[in-house]
Each structure stands twice: as C-alpha cells, then as structure tokens.
Amino acid sequence: MAGTLKYMVTGASGQLGALAVDELLAKVPAAEVGALVRRAEAAAPLEAKGVTVRVASYDDPAALNAALEGVERLLLVSSSEVGKRAAQHANVIDAARAAGVGFVAYTSILGAEGSPLTVLPGEHVATERALAASGLAYAVLRNGWYTENYTMGVATSLEHGGMIGAAGEGRIASATRADYAAAAAAVLTGELPPSGTIYELAGDDAFTLTDFAAALSELSGKTVGYTNLPPEDYAAALEGAGLPEPVAAMLADSEKGAAQGGLYSDDKTLSRLIGRPTTPWRETLKAAL
Q1: Where's the NAD(P)-binding domain (predicted)?
Q2: Do residues 145 and 209 touch, judged by C-beta distance below 8 A?
C-alpha cells in the first residue's frame, strides 16, 4: 500500500509541473510532496529534492490508481498531448475518485468556455465538466499564455530581423510559468476554496506583438519588425519552418483568438493569489537575450 502524501503534482518532470514542485517545496516539507512522472528515468532529479516519486502514464488507469493512493490534494497539470487530453485527464479524475483524493486543482486555459480560440479550449472544457461530475472537491486554474511562448522564439526573430504572427493588435496578458506554478501552490496549500471555484489567471500587464517586437528591438539593439499575417498564411509559414500541421494549426488558431481578446484579462486574480505582481513580460524578454 502506498504511503500518505498531502500533495501530489502530476506531470512533475514537465516545465510547469517541475516549477509547481519547487513552489510547494518552498512552502511545505519535502516529505509531504509527491511527484507523478510517466517515465522512471525522470525520477532522479525529483528524488534528489526529497520528494516521493510515483510513476504512471495518463494512459494507464491501473498505474494511476496505485499512484494516487493516499494522496490528499492533487494538482492535475494538463497533458501536453493535444487531442488525447480529455481521455487522459478523465483517467486521472477516475483514479483520484477511486483513491479518495480530497481535492483536485486542474490547469485549464483562460476563459475556457467562452474563448474565441477553437483548438485548445475544448479538451479543457471537457475536463472541467468531468471534474464537476466526479463528486470530487476541485478548483480550476484557467492559466493564460506563458510569456515563454514568445521568448522561446527570440533567437529566430533576431536572426531574421522580424517576427510573424496572426494576433493583430490583440493584447496578450501573459505571465511566466513560474507565476502560474506559484498560484497552483498557493491554492493547493492554502485554505481550500469552495468546490468548483474557477480562477481566471493572467499577467498584470499586456502587450501586442507589435509591442513585443519593439521591445525586442530596444533591448537587443537590433531592428526587429512584426508582420501580421492571415491565420492560414501564418499556419503555412509555420509548416514551412518544419512544424507538424496540427501544431501549426493550433498556434495559428491561438493567435487568431488572441486577436479577438482571447488571451487578455485585466482582473489581476493571478497577482492576488501569489501575493506579488506577476513577472513583467519585458523582464522575461530581457532575461531571454
């Protein structure tokens, strides 16, 4: 029989999950923290931090049932496998219910139900509904865009002297992964909210891609322009750069949604949860150079 764990983070070797583990370790003893990974070889760095590591894939209900035994509070980090997420998340929810998990926090997407984005939100909405029907106590962390989604392309933008996109003049209220991880840890370790609570999470300040290109020019000392494209042309350009068609389509759809306000919020819930301003996007950009 697995031991009792107050906290468990799924996807703990991924970018957001690993940060969430670190945020928990800053708040509670390592003996209270569990990390769920899908491959045994991902365990060592987490075990070195003193956390309990359990191995289970989102596709393996039996392994999930065993891995979640004795867990009190679970952070369900959404799967990276777009198109498979709803079924994978349902497996985790079923296992959490079978194991008697006391509370689940799930990382969804900003404005999920009414979002103008058409590719990403559907599986998040399905997961939110599965949680609502599960009988589990839960909260939804509707994360906005990561600033890193744009800073990861800085080297390419500097090489070509320009950025392309399809977000028009849509404002993007992004925050860092670390900001969202801090919010997850705050919800998980604090006084639990009423079941079904939804947190709409976004950065305190926002930018257009024109703003982003101008800031990149200023900080790098190199001129970088922004060219806005129709979504279908942007998707074709991404495919031409080597991205698989489904990924290109998802990114183009996300930018089309951003042009309609889908990645913007000004309610400051994220900064209130973490007890500090969110990381300014210019600061994240500067650090990426």
Answers
A1: 11-189
A2: no
Buried b (16+ CB within 10 A) or exposed e, 224-252: bebebbebeebbebbeeeeeeeeebbbbb
Can you list the alpha helix ranges (DSSP code H) found in the chain? 15-25, 43-47, 61-67, 85-99, 121-134, 148-151, 154-160, 177-189, 209-220, 231-240, 245-259, 269-274, 281-288
User: What values do phi and psi take at 76, rounded to 5?
Assistant: -90, 100
Question: What backbone phi and psi angles, to 5 degrees, belong to 282?
Answer: -65, -35
Question: To which CATH superfamily is domain 5-145+175-201 assigned?
Answer: NAD(P)-binding Rossmann-like Domain (3.40.50.720)
pLDDT at residue 231 above 70?
yes
Please give the distance of CA 184 from its chain centroid, rounded to a whole number.
10
Hey, what CATH topology would domain 148-172+204-265+279-288 get? UDP-galactose 4-epimerase; domain 1 (3.90.25)
Task: Output b/e per residue, 107-132; b: 16+ Cβ within 10 A.
Answer: bbbbbbeebbbebbbbbbbbbbebbe
Q: What does residue 73 show for φ and ψ, rounded to 5 degrees?
A: -130, 130
Taking the C-alpha atoms of residue 28 and residue 240, their distance in angstroms, rounded to an integer, is 47
pTM here is 0.96
The string of pLDDT tens digits covering residues 8-39 is 999 999 999 999 999 999 999 999 999 999 99
Buried b (16+ CB within 10 A) or exposed e, 44-63: eebeeeebbbbbbbbebbeb
In the chain, CATH 3.40.50.720 sits at 5-145+175-201
